[in-house]
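Priority: medium. Attachment 1 of 2:
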């Protein structure tokens, strides 16, 4: 092979190597970065992998809720990122959180719904949380909790002391001495016995 042929062959090999290097084979982090970039640009690579979600470690089935309580899940997606999180209580949606921009692929984040349990009756409630990635894949978790708010009964206030002057006038005008005597007897004798 003459010199010109060798140079031509070497040039072709160099061009092939340069071309392959510029395209490259994406490593896992590079692929995640590329997918995330494409998500932000409005399109996404084919993503058939569902996201993952679980309850915050402090929440377990049978948890008892009093007052205001945070329901928190931790979720992530390896391909396109989390785009939406929905909280349901007994089948009714109570929180719809749109994540904009979507979460970074491969990164887990927490999502919270704050529930004021004093607005509901003491009972068992079932919560379902659904998470969706950009491609529409979903995963969900369920938990059953018990609301047990303790209400303290109010103590009725009792009136003590002499009867109001207006009541004495009405009693005297309406029933004379008999009714007036009863009013005075009630305030000074019966009430004191009930208090004593």
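Attachment 2 of 2:
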């Amino acid at each position: 092979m003459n010199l010109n042929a060798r140079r031509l062959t070497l040039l072709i090999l160099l061009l092939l190597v340069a071309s392959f290097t510029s395209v490259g084979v994406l490593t896992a982090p590079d692929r995640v970065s590329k997918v995330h970039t494409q998500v932000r640009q409005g399109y996404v690579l084919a993503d058939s992998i569902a996201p993952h979600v679980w309850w915050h470690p402090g929440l377990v089935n049978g948890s008892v809720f009093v007052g205001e309580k945070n329901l928190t899940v931790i979720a992530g997606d390896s391909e396109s990122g989390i785009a939406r999180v929905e909280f349901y209580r007994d089948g009714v949606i109570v929180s719809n959180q749109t994540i904009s921009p979507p979460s970074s692929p491969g990164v887990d984040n927490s999502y919270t719904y704050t529930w004021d349990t004093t607005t509901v009756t003491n009972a068992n409630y079932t919560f379902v949380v659904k998470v969706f990635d950009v491609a529409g894949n979903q995963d969900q978790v369920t938990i059953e909790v018990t609301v047990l708010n303790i209400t303290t009964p109010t103590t009725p206030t009792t009136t003590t002391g002499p009867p109001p002057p207006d009541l004495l006038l009405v009693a005297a005008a309406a029933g004379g001495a008999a009714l007036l005597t009863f009013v005075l007897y009630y305030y000074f004798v019966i009430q004191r016995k009930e208090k004593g």
